Amino acid sequence: LIDENRxxxxxxxxxxxxxxxxDAGKIEIPIVAEIFRYYAGWxxxxxxxxxxxxxxxMGLSMRMPVGVCAFITPWNFPILMAAWKIAPALATGNTIVxxxxxxxxxxxxxLAQLGSEAGLPDGVLNVITGTGPEVGxxxxxxxxxxxxxxxxxxxxxxxxxxxxxxxxxxVTLELGGKSPNVVFADADLKAxxxxxxxxxxxxxxxxxxxxxxxxxxxxxYDEFVEGLAKMAGKTTVxxxxxxxxxxxxxxNAAQYxxxxxxxxxxKADG
Length: 270
Description:
By secondary structure, the chain is α/β, with parallel strands linked by helices. 47% of the residues lie in helices and 16% in strands.
Protein backbone atom coordinates (compact mmCIF):
# COMPACT_ATOMS: atom_id res chain seq x y z
CA LEU A 1 0.00 0.00 0.00
CA ILE A 2 2.89 2.37 0.71
CA ASP A 3 4.34 1.62 -2.71
CA GLU A 4 0.97 2.09 -4.37
CA ASN A 5 0.47 5.44 -2.62
CA ARG A 6 4.03 6.70 -3.08
CA UNK A 7 2.96 9.76 -5.07
CA UNK A 8 0.39 10.82 -2.48
CA UNK A 9 2.75 10.32 0.44
CA UNK A 10 5.50 12.18 -1.37
CA UNK A 11 3.11 15.05 -2.06
CA UNK A 12 2.38 15.30 1.67
CA UNK A 13 6.10 15.55 2.43
CA UNK A 14 6.68 18.13 -0.32
CA UNK A 15 3.84 20.39 0.81
CA UNK A 16 4.58 20.08 4.53
CA UNK A 17 8.37 20.20 4.71
CA UNK A 18 9.61 21.53 1.35
CA UNK A 19 11.30 18.32 0.21
CA UNK A 20 11.88 17.85 -3.49
CA UNK A 21 9.94 15.14 -5.36
CA UNK A 22 13.22 13.29 -5.90
CA ASP A 23 14.12 13.19 -2.20
CA ALA A 24 10.60 12.33 -1.04
CA GLY A 25 9.34 10.09 -3.84
CA LYS A 26 12.51 8.44 -5.10
CA ILE A 27 14.51 8.04 -1.90
CA GLU A 28 12.52 8.28 1.33
CA ILE A 29 9.11 6.72 0.60
CA PRO A 30 10.69 3.57 -0.96
CA ILE A 31 12.83 3.25 2.18
CA VAL A 32 9.66 3.46 4.30
CA ALA A 33 8.18 0.52 2.36
CA GLU A 34 11.38 -1.49 2.85
CA ILE A 35 11.35 -0.76 6.60
CA PHE A 36 7.91 -2.33 6.92
CA ARG A 37 8.92 -5.30 4.76
CA TYR A 38 11.99 -5.90 6.92
CA TYR A 39 10.21 -5.72 10.26
CA ALA A 40 7.36 -7.86 8.96
CA GLY A 41 9.98 -10.59 8.83
CA TRP A 42 10.57 -10.22 12.57
CA UNK A 43 7.11 -11.57 13.34
CA UNK A 44 8.08 -15.18 12.70
CA UNK A 45 11.63 -14.84 14.06
CA UNK A 46 11.06 -13.61 17.61
CA UNK A 47 10.78 -16.59 19.93
CA UNK A 48 11.44 -17.51 23.53
CA UNK A 49 14.34 -19.61 24.80
CA UNK A 50 14.49 -22.86 26.76
CA UNK A 51 17.32 -22.76 29.31
CA UNK A 52 18.84 -25.80 31.00
CA UNK A 53 18.98 -25.43 34.77
CA UNK A 54 20.63 -27.62 37.41
CA UNK A 55 18.77 -30.76 38.36
CA UNK A 56 15.48 -31.76 36.83
CA UNK A 57 14.60 -28.16 36.02
CA MET A 58 13.99 -26.09 32.94
CA GLY A 59 13.89 -22.35 32.48
CA LEU A 60 11.74 -20.64 29.86
CA SER A 61 12.30 -17.06 28.74
CA MET A 62 9.55 -15.33 26.82
CA ARG A 63 9.60 -12.02 24.99
CA MET A 64 6.49 -9.98 25.70
CA PRO A 65 5.23 -6.72 24.18
CA VAL A 66 6.02 -3.58 26.14
CA GLY A 67 2.45 -2.30 25.78
CA VAL A 68 1.38 1.19 24.76
CA CYS A 69 4.15 3.12 23.00
CA ALA A 70 4.05 6.89 22.57
CA PHE A 71 6.14 8.06 19.62
CA ILE A 72 6.97 11.74 19.06
CA THR A 73 8.50 12.48 15.67
CA PRO A 74 10.13 15.59 14.15
CA TRP A 75 9.42 17.68 11.09
CA ASN A 76 12.55 16.97 9.04
CA PHE A 77 11.80 13.32 8.08
CA PRO A 78 8.14 12.91 9.06
CA ILE A 79 7.14 9.56 7.53
CA LEU A 80 10.61 8.03 7.66
CA MET A 81 10.99 8.67 11.38
CA ALA A 82 7.46 7.38 11.96
CA ALA A 83 8.25 4.16 10.09
CA TRP A 84 11.44 3.57 12.07
CA LYS A 85 9.41 3.64 15.27
CA ILE A 86 6.11 2.10 14.18
CA ALA A 87 7.29 -0.95 12.23
CA PRO A 88 9.36 -2.65 14.97
CA ALA A 89 6.74 -1.80 17.59
CA LEU A 90 3.97 -3.41 15.53
CA ALA A 91 6.10 -6.46 14.76
CA THR A 92 6.64 -7.07 18.47
CA GLY A 93 2.97 -6.78 19.41
CA ASN A 94 2.67 -3.28 20.80
CA THR A 95 0.04 -0.59 20.33
CA ILE A 96 1.06 2.89 19.27
CA VAL A 97 0.09 6.51 19.74
CA UNK A 98 2.07 8.64 17.29
CA UNK A 99 2.39 12.40 17.75
CA UNK A 100 3.95 13.87 14.59
CA UNK A 101 5.26 17.42 14.40
CA UNK A 102 2.49 19.98 14.13
CA UNK A 103 4.27 21.29 11.01
CA UNK A 104 4.32 17.96 9.14
CA UNK A 105 1.39 15.76 10.16
CA UNK A 106 -0.13 14.83 6.79
CA UNK A 107 2.03 11.85 5.88
CA UNK A 108 1.61 10.29 9.34
CA UNK A 109 -2.16 10.57 9.07
CA UNK A 110 -2.06 8.94 5.64
CA LEU A 111 0.18 6.20 6.99
CA ALA A 112 -2.37 5.43 9.69
CA GLN A 113 -5.09 5.31 7.04
CA LEU A 114 -3.02 2.81 5.04
CA GLY A 115 -2.54 0.76 8.21
CA SER A 116 -6.31 0.58 8.59
CA GLU A 117 -6.68 -0.47 4.94
CA ALA A 118 -4.02 -3.14 5.49
CA GLY A 119 -6.12 -4.67 8.28
CA LEU A 120 -4.71 -3.29 11.52
CA PRO A 121 -7.40 -3.49 14.20
CA ASP A 122 -8.82 -0.22 15.45
CA GLY A 123 -6.73 1.22 18.26
CA VAL A 124 -3.46 -0.47 17.32
CA LEU A 125 -1.98 2.48 15.38
CA ASN A 126 -3.26 5.88 16.47
CA VAL A 127 -2.15 9.34 15.35
CA ILE A 128 -2.88 12.44 17.39
CA THR A 129 -1.84 15.88 16.17
CA GLY A 130 -0.91 19.03 18.05
CA THR A 131 2.00 20.84 19.63
CA GLY A 132 4.57 19.37 21.98
CA PRO A 133 3.44 21.08 25.19
CA GLU A 134 -0.28 20.42 24.74
CA VAL A 135 -0.12 16.92 23.22
CA GLY A 136 3.40 15.47 23.29
CA UNK A 137 4.06 16.09 26.98
CA UNK A 138 0.58 14.85 27.90
CA UNK A 139 1.44 11.55 26.21
CA UNK A 140 4.75 11.37 28.05
CA UNK A 141 2.99 11.91 31.37
CA UNK A 142 0.02 9.61 30.70
CA UNK A 143 -0.09 6.68 33.17
CA UNK A 144 -1.23 4.19 30.50
CA UNK A 145 1.83 4.80 28.29
CA UNK A 146 4.54 2.19 28.87
CA UNK A 147 7.29 3.47 26.56
CA UNK A 148 8.21 6.82 25.02
CA UNK A 149 10.39 7.29 21.94
CA UNK A 150 11.31 10.85 21.00
CA UNK A 151 13.33 12.29 18.15
CA UNK A 152 14.07 15.99 18.41
CA UNK A 153 16.02 18.59 20.33
CA UNK A 154 18.28 17.88 23.29
CA UNK A 155 16.38 20.47 25.35
CA UNK A 156 13.06 18.69 24.96
CA UNK A 157 14.76 15.31 25.32
CA UNK A 158 15.96 16.28 28.80
CA UNK A 159 12.42 17.22 29.82
CA UNK A 160 11.06 13.91 28.54
CA UNK A 161 13.78 11.89 30.26
CA UNK A 162 12.98 13.62 33.54
CA UNK A 163 9.24 12.86 33.21
CA UNK A 164 9.90 9.22 32.30
CA UNK A 165 12.26 8.82 35.26
CA UNK A 166 9.51 9.86 37.65
CA UNK A 167 7.13 7.21 36.28
CA UNK A 168 9.79 4.58 35.39
CA UNK A 169 8.64 4.51 31.76
CA UNK A 170 11.01 3.05 29.22
CA VAL A 171 12.42 5.83 27.07
CA THR A 172 14.44 6.10 23.85
CA LEU A 173 15.85 9.49 22.84
CA GLU A 174 17.36 10.42 19.48
CA LEU A 175 18.62 13.96 19.89
CA GLY A 176 20.36 16.52 17.71
CA GLY A 177 24.09 16.85 17.33
CA LYS A 178 26.88 18.67 15.53
CA SER A 179 28.55 16.26 13.14
CA PRO A 180 31.98 17.20 11.73
CA ASN A 181 33.60 16.03 8.52
CA VAL A 182 37.31 15.45 9.11
CA VAL A 183 39.34 15.52 5.89
CA PHE A 184 43.05 14.67 5.80
CA ALA A 185 45.52 15.49 3.07
CA ASP A 186 45.67 11.90 1.79
CA ALA A 187 41.90 11.68 1.27
CA ASP A 188 40.24 11.19 -2.10
CA LEU A 189 39.53 14.90 -2.45
CA LYS A 190 36.74 14.55 -5.01
CA ALA A 191 34.91 11.99 -2.88
CA UNK A 192 35.46 14.05 0.27
CA UNK A 193 34.02 17.21 -1.33
CA UNK A 194 31.04 15.27 -2.69
CA UNK A 195 30.42 13.65 0.69
CA UNK A 196 30.68 16.94 2.58
CA UNK A 197 28.28 18.64 0.15
CA UNK A 198 25.75 15.83 0.42
CA UNK A 199 26.13 15.79 4.20
CA UNK A 200 25.08 19.41 4.59
CA UNK A 201 22.85 20.12 1.58
CA UNK A 202 20.64 17.00 1.57
CA UNK A 203 17.16 17.87 2.81
CA UNK A 204 18.28 21.52 3.07
CA UNK A 205 20.62 20.56 5.89
CA UNK A 206 17.64 19.67 8.08
CA UNK A 207 19.16 16.40 9.27
CA UNK A 208 20.08 15.57 12.87
CA UNK A 209 23.36 14.09 11.65
CA UNK A 210 24.08 16.79 9.05
CA UNK A 211 27.75 17.47 8.43
CA UNK A 212 27.52 21.01 9.73
CA UNK A 213 31.27 21.41 10.33
CA UNK A 214 34.24 20.58 8.13
CA UNK A 215 37.73 20.17 9.59
CA UNK A 216 40.30 20.11 6.77
CA UNK A 217 44.05 19.53 6.96
CA UNK A 218 45.90 22.74 6.12
CA UNK A 219 47.72 21.39 3.04
CA UNK A 220 44.46 20.84 1.12
CA TYR A 221 42.35 23.57 2.71
CA ASP A 222 42.19 25.97 -0.26
CA GLU A 223 41.55 23.22 -2.79
CA PHE A 224 38.81 21.69 -0.63
CA VAL A 225 37.06 25.02 -0.05
CA GLU A 226 37.14 25.75 -3.78
CA GLY A 227 35.66 22.36 -4.59
CA LEU A 228 32.93 22.68 -1.97
CA ALA A 229 32.05 26.17 -3.19
CA LYS A 230 31.65 24.81 -6.73
CA MET A 231 29.34 22.07 -5.48
CA ALA A 232 27.28 24.66 -3.61
CA GLY A 233 27.09 26.81 -6.72
CA LYS A 234 25.64 23.90 -8.69
CA THR A 235 22.88 23.32 -6.14
CA THR A 236 19.69 24.89 -7.52
CA VAL A 237 17.50 26.40 -4.81
CA UNK A 238 13.84 27.04 -5.55
CA UNK A 239 10.26 25.81 -5.25
CA UNK A 240 10.43 22.06 -4.57
CA UNK A 241 8.37 21.05 -7.60
CA UNK A 242 10.15 23.38 -10.07
CA UNK A 243 12.29 21.73 -12.75
CA UNK A 244 15.90 21.42 -11.66
CA UNK A 245 15.38 22.29 -7.99
CA UNK A 246 17.69 20.31 -5.73
CA UNK A 247 17.04 22.27 -2.55
CA UNK A 248 13.59 23.43 -1.52
CA UNK A 249 12.61 25.82 1.28
CA UNK A 250 13.31 25.12 4.92
CA UNK A 251 10.38 23.72 6.86
CA ASN A 252 8.99 26.81 8.59
CA ALA A 253 9.62 30.43 9.53
CA ALA A 254 11.39 29.54 12.77
CA GLN A 255 13.96 27.45 10.87
CA TYR A 256 14.37 30.24 8.33
CA UNK A 257 15.12 32.70 11.13
CA UNK A 258 17.74 30.30 12.52
CA UNK A 259 19.43 30.16 9.12
CA UNK A 260 19.55 33.96 8.91
CA UNK A 261 20.94 34.18 12.43
CA UNK A 262 23.64 31.63 11.57
CA UNK A 263 24.62 33.59 8.46
CA UNK A 264 24.88 36.82 10.44
CA UNK A 265 26.96 35.11 13.11
CA UNK A 266 29.28 33.68 10.44
CA LYS A 267 29.74 37.18 9.01
CA ALA A 268 30.48 38.56 12.45
CA ASP A 269 33.06 35.84 13.03
CA GLY A 270 34.76 36.74 9.75
